[in-house]
């Protein structure tokens, strides 16, 4: 099995990262294209009939091109936010520039340093598409992200709440609270808990509110549930809810808030004013590819670079030991141990993700023969497809020129289940 790890490492040095729509046209990740993340949240506004859409953007330093000027490293870029209605007509747009300066070269390549930007839009409630673009002024290259959103009407109810914002930091100084939003939605670095921020709009004169939060997995398994009470004033209230994240395993979760208003010494029935709202967050270790959302699955997918018995031994460890052992295994394989990124792990799981998206049949894509070959050897240099040849079953031939190998896959059933017929170690003894 070690020989295939060596092949994988060799091909990593000559094969670019996954960015392909078809396996035979695999291209490298374009250099100099900036990356960023954004969050879109709805709040009530002070203008009748309108709601406020807040856009937060996070641009990592390592995604930008810095130019050294004397002892200062400088990066500058242009940001554009366009808001489109349901007919895809542009209704609002903002364009502005940002500049970053630092004296530390290490910061310019750091995943931990980033620039936060914020813009607000007053809009009629409804469905919109938010399109955000960043243009690096050094490389002249751009990246665009879009997201469909629904901006609620916060003035239509007597009791309502805003969208939920995850926080990286909540600072209190002199009785004044300042917040730093968590744009990535990853809470793994926030100790045993993190804060949620939301606004509560109280037109029913409730004097307090009971907030129950529930943390559940993608499979609706409940991990934690707690209830807190908070006093309320009339009108708009800022609410901060501390959520315990202790011992949550790596994965994607949903936190759901049930918010119940209360009026002391009243017979008013407030059941109609109960609000439920939720949002997604994740527990993702720093340096781990974002495609990994399930540790046990990630361990199982290592079968192509580890002996099966070692994979099984790792999976049976207690959760805390399993996490540390997983990190240590990939740390030993890190081609650049002095940096925050592990390029080998990123490439491996990028291939797994691609295989799952493109080769899935009646089993997961990474378990198929095509998925296996793709994960070990990367994208082929050339592919011959023969789906309709006379007197032959559909087949494909993948060519790898650097290692002078070709692999033939045949669809014996006619349902797109291509089986590898070229000898490759113990392919027919793999678990399927």
Provide a descriptive summary of the structure in words.
There is one protein chain. By secondary structure, this protein is α+β, with helices and mostly antiparallel strands. The protein folds into 3 domains: 2-28 and 289-429, no CATH class; 31-153, Immunoglobulin-like (Sandwich); 157-284, Coagulation Factor XIII, Chain A, domain 1 (Distorted Sandwich), CATH 2.70.50.60. The chain is 16% helix and 41% strand. Strands 3, 4, 5, 7 and 8 form a 5-stranded antiparallel beta sheet that branches. Strands 9, 10, 11, 12 and 15 form a 5-stranded antiparallel beta sheet that branches. The chain has a 4-stranded antiparallel beta sheet with strand order 14-13-16-17, with no helix packed on it.
Low-confidence stretches: 13-22, 24-29, 426-432
Strand content: 35-45%
User: How many structural domains can be distinguished in the coordinates?
Assistant: 3
**Net shape:** globular
Q: How many beta-strand segments?
A: 21
Number of helices: 7
Terminal CA distance reads 18 Å
Mean pLDDT: 86
- Percent helix range: 10-25%
As a whole number of angstroms, the C-alpha radius of gyration is 26 Å
Structural class: alpha+beta
Order of helices and strands: HEEEEEHEEEEEEEEEEEEHHHHHEEEE
What profile does the largest beta sheet have? Answer: 5 strands, antiparallel
Summarize the structure.
This protein is an alpha+beta fold and 432 residues long. The chain contains seven helices and 21 strands.
Write a concise keyword list for the protein shown above.
432 residues; alpha+beta; Immunoglobulin-like; Coagulation Factor XIII, Chain A, domain 1; 3 domains; 5-stranded antiparallel β-sheet; globular; disordered C terminus
